[in-house]
Specification:
Blueprint (H helix, E strand, L loop, with lengths): L14 H13 L3 H13 L3 H4 L4 H4 L4 E5 L6 E5 L2 H14 L10 E2 L2 E5 L2 H12 L10 H15 L4 H10 L5 H7 L2 H11 L2
Antiparallel strand pairs: 1-2, 3-4
Length: 193
């Protein structure tokens, strides 16, 4: 988590590239990390909330209801059909012992969430060999979610207003900076000369 006024190095990932990586991970039967990426890019949750998810939170559900750890706010997230299919496929392949076990758990400790360092290592391995120049980290997934919402809504101010509320930003300028939009806009000024 970055401090107010500090610069975060996480950037978003191209939607097609991240789906290519997901396909390759599934092909290699690396379902846990594929599911972590999928949950991140289809819900926009912070990693602190993702690691608390159990199979029964997502399996066979149309929506996820949770209280965010950082903000204490209640969120209701409609689960996309791709995410629901990935959850079902991962569940079938992983075959967890109990549905109430954490999805993203330590190997030998079903009641302990995966550690951030381990998640970072797994994400870095997943992105090896691909043409991604950004910082590979869990926050990249949240930014990819936001960027996709903005792009799918014709880069509209309305999408930025909704994302600003969802991300709990004070205004849309903060959301523009967060998603890297503002930097692109400023960079484009030089092209106008």
């Amino acid at each position: 988590m970055s401090r107010k006024g500090s610069h975060t190095t996480a950037t978003y990932c191209d939607w097609n590239l991240i789906h290519q990586i997901l396909g390759d991970l599934v092909g290699k039967k690396e379902y846990q990390i594929a599911l972590l990426i999928t949950v991140g890019i289809y819900t926009g949750l912070r990693i602190s909330d993702m690691v608390k998810l159990t199979w029964e939170d997502l399996l066979g559900k149309d929506k996820l209801i949770l209280e965010e750890q950082k903000t204490g706010k209640r969120r209701e997230i409609i689960l996309h059909k791709f995410l629901k299919r990935m959850v079902a496929d991962a569940y079938y392949e992983i075959q967890p012992y109990k549905d109430w076990h954490l999805i993203f758990r330590q190997v030998m400790k079903p009641m302990k969430p995966m550690k951030p360092f381990t998640i970072g290592q797994k994400l870095n391995r997943a992105f090896e060999g691909y043409n991604y120049s950004g910082n590979v980290c869990t926050h990249m997934l949240r930014k990819t979610f936001g960027r996709r919402i903005w792009e799918k809504n014709d880069q509209s101010d309305t999408a930025l207003i909704m994302l600003s509320e969802l991300f709990n930003h004070s205004n849309t300028l903060t959301t523009r900076r967060y998603l890297g939009i503002r930097q692109e806009e400023l960079g484009n000024l030089y092209e106008m000369l």
